[in-house]
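Standup notes
- DV: blocked on the single-chain target, sequence here:
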Amino acid sequence: MEHPIEVDYLVVGAGVAGLRAAVELAGHGSVLVVTKESLGESNTHYAQGGIAVAMEGEQDVALHLEDTINAGDGLVYRPAAEVLVTEGPQRVEELISWGAHFDEENGHLLRTREGAHSLPRILHASGDATGAEISRSLVAFARAHQRIRFAEWTMVTSLVVAEGRVAAADLASARSDGTGPAPSRIRARAVLLASGGAGQVYSDTTNPAVATGDGLALALQAGAELADMEFYQFHPTALSLPGVPRFLLSEALRGEGAWLRNDCGERFMERLHPLRELAPRDVVARAIAREGMDPAGQPGATRPVYLDMRHASGVNLSERFPGISAFLAQHGLSLSCDLIPVRPAAHYLMGGIRTDLHGRTTLRGLYAAGEAACTGVHGANRLASNSLLEGLVFGARAAQAILADALPLGVAEPLPFQPQPLTAGEEAFVEEQIARLQAAMWAYAGLLREESTLRQGLVVQAACDAALVGLTGQGKSSRRLLEGQALSRVAFVILQAALARTESRGAHFRNDYPQRDDANFGKHSIASSGGQVRFERW
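- DV (later): unblocked, structure below
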């Protein structure tokens, strides 16, 4: 058996949070960044709308804070939001100095407005490719650093806990055919989980295939706590065409004046919220879901809902939204000429691994940042375009905490054994279980929930989990088996937390408890590996 490899700092994930942390850490030791696919393949890369940042002084910062708190529906942890909006401008300026290019006009940064923002403060790049530009600039900057190494097409299979702390992590090839380096164990002073969200837990999602909640499952299995897992944000407007992936249609479209219409041609948001199409995302998503329900109540039947930009003037839509326009053109649609069919899709996890304001989890030696973490900054409903800013701000903060804690290298035994690959039939079985779980989560724990459906979801989750555990028990492993188990663990916590919160707030709506209950649930949910859920005020 080979002895563990040593590195000062292990960063899991190569999105905005992981790369920003890696750059900070590299000034003080060796850094290994592990990413499940190629560099840049992350939720960061696919973020269209932009990055929200208050760069116009104290009043702008104060308004950004209030917008963030208001969108979070009574559950935003104010100190976290204050950190986000006050440190955000410095981090964005820093990013620009590292080579990120945001759209400008006459030497001034262009800003747009999105839902629940009181004024335009969203920076964008190449119209609708902001995440790709941020990812490009951070990857280039990190690659130039001699102390940062990258392990692409590699996944963490488990965290090693010894002497009350995370001491090491086990790595394996993430290639679907199993090729790549043999499994290895990495000792480190600290492990940072910046592995993104878990949108693939739902059948309808805007998230890329890599978003399977791996970091959340690893942390939970190692003994760390998760928080606010019932709050999954569903983006209101994903393209809804048969056989076409749920392509994200950025909120910036509504910021530029897009309307929502039902199948009768009516603008329904006017009667539901004073901000109409620019209401908070949870409000708009549920409104679209209800407008799309079949009035006769036929199971599975839906009515179309459309995004309408045909009236837009003063903006060249193909230039402002080149990526979206090109994708729609592939399917015979045009923003300027057509009604675009839309429906909600799972988009962003407000909950995650519970951390303090410096990325420290409840388990020594383990840190988290970005969508994988939960500081309480988003509350029950994330304000549009705050996620890229969160990655920058809290990625840097987590790295600073790691350096301040100055833990020694952890103690870990050699890797005990190498698992056997799955047969083709077993891989097909795993895919069936994942698809079954995803469909159940969409049907039973989506935008509109109630006790009976959530319990149905738990029945399906338990069956899928048992099937996947059966393969693991035979000493077998593969990328999809590991991803399936991660999705199952995440689904279990979402379902348990949603059952425990018997109220409606933000992205969590219970048909059987439609009112907000501040007296009992103006608190954050905390979940542990055993499935217990408790509520705490922060």
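- Follow-up: The chain has a mean pLDDT of 93.
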